[in-house]
From TrEMBL:
Catalytic activity: L-glutamate + NH4(+) + ATP = L-glutamine + ADP + phosphate + H(+)
Top EC category: ligase
Lineage, highest ranks first: Eukaryota, Metazoa, Ecdysozoa, Arthropoda, Crustacea
PROSITE patterns, per the entry: GLNA_1, GLNA_ATP, GS_BETA_GRASP, GS_CATALYTIC
The keyword Transmembrane is assigned to this record: no
Location within or outside the cell: Cytoplasm
SMART domains named among the record's database cross-references: Gln-synt_C
Leader peptide range in chain numbering: none
Record EC number: 6.3.1.2
A Pfam family: Gln-synt_C
Keyword match Cytoplasm: yes
Biological process according to GO: glutamine biosynthetic process
Name used for this protein in its record: Glutamine synthetase
Length: 362
């Protein structure tokens, strides 16, 4: 069935600590060219069903902040990423000006984008770039790792990383479909690969400047969940989905400022690492939605992780908090990799605290 002439669907998406959500789709005339072109009525959803409001006062407002092409409906259809604001904001009238006033309203506790955007605006002269390596695990609908024997375990880790063949990788159809969906939508996806544990995969998003990192990663996560529906496969962002001698899942964050990327930028990189070493606990609390409790299962000092209790840094060392890539050390400029963020982190919280610590000295 075709859409009415000049009509399109808009899907409004918002993030929660455990997954991205969407409100019911709506139809509007004419395709917007950018988020600034959107002239939408104030939109809301039932916050009591997402643990963001009580049932007696349940409406939560949506503030459009980024727009993407819809890879499922194609054509003029769009996906709209939104911030969420509480019920006691100003919401009379219609249109862009009204939505703009919602910035003065209290944000929901799960809206980490607002403060991140404020920090990125203050630090714009540093030109912060980010790239996040998002690991995840594919599961059957019963929660069992996809492709694993139902009675027992696969062989030990070793042959699965970047593997090829049905005896080494499981779920490549999901991975390829997700990659194409990201490319079509406008998410700045940079790559994907099979990971160390079978049924575990990774995709990379970036480099993205400022707030765009969080926007693109949340959209990429939504697209992964949505693609998984078509295959009957669940994508889990649990940082340690299988206990025992198996790798966990992280969201390693590659970070640089303009001073790190120029000749002899290694000096700025080392200065940033020194600042990070003095705020380890604060970063651990920001790197998973449960203030370190989720990451505690993953950051054990084993399986290519550092200890959650200690800060460390090194060149080409994947057992440290901060890794300096060997090429960066050789060229004396580039970026650093923070290996502490968990796979279920909020990228707005991760990028915000990195900029606060290394750029704004807060």
């Amino acid at each position: 069935m075709t859409h009415g002439k000049g009509m399109k669907y808009l899907y409004f998406l918002f993030s929660l600590p455990y997954s991205p959500h969407h409100s019911p789709p709506s139809s509007f005339p004419l395709p917007p060219l950018s988020i600034e072109d959107l002239e939408l009525p104030v939109w809301n959803y039932d916050g009591s069903s997402t643990y963001q409001a009580e049932g007696s006062n349940s409406d939560v407002y949506l503030y459009p902040c980024a727009i993407y092409r819809d890879p499922f409906r194609l054509g003029n259809n769009k996906l709209v990423l939104c911030e969420t604001y509480k019920y006691n904001g100003k919401c009379t009238g219609r249109g862009r000006n009204v939505i703009g006033r919602l910035w003065d309203s209290p944000r929901t506790e799960t809206n980490k984008r607002k403060s991140c955007k404020e920090v990125m605006d203050r630090a714009k002269d540093y030109v912060p770039w980010f790239g996040i390596e998002q690991e995840y695990t594919l599961l059957d609908q019963d929660g069992h790792p996809f492709g694993w024997p139902k009675n027992g375990f696969p062989g030990p880790q070793g042959p699965y990383y970047c593997g090829v063949g049905a005896n080494k990788v499981h779920g490549r159809d999901v991975v390829e479909a997700h990659y194409r969906a990201c490319m079509y939508s406008g998410v700045k996806i940079a790559g994907s690969n099979a990971e160390v544990m079978p049924a575990q995969w990774e995709f990379q998003v970036g480099p993205c400047e400022g707030i765009t990192m969080g926007d693109d990663l949340w959209m990429a996560r939504y697209l992964l969940h949505r693609v998984g529906e078509d295959f009957g496969i669940v994508a889990s962002f649990d940082p340690k989905p299988v206990q025992g001698d198996w790798n966990g899942a992280g969201a390693h964050c590659n970070f640089s400022t303009k001073d790190m990327r120029v000749e002899n930028g290694i000096t700025a990189i080392e200065a940033a690492i020194d600042k990070l070493s003095r705020h380890h606990v604060r970063h651990i609390k920001a790197y998973d939605p449960n203030e370190g409790k989720d990451n505690e299962r993953r950051l054990t000092g084993l399986h290519e992780t550092s200890s959650i209790h200690d800060f460390s840094a090194g060149v080409a060392n994947r057992g440290t908090s901060i890794r300096i890539p060997r090429t960066v050390a050789a060229e004396k400029c580039g970026y650093l990799e923070d290996r502490r963020p968990s796979s279920n982190c909020d990228p707005y919280s991760v990028t915000e605290v990195l900029v606060r610590t290394t750029c704004l000295d807060e």
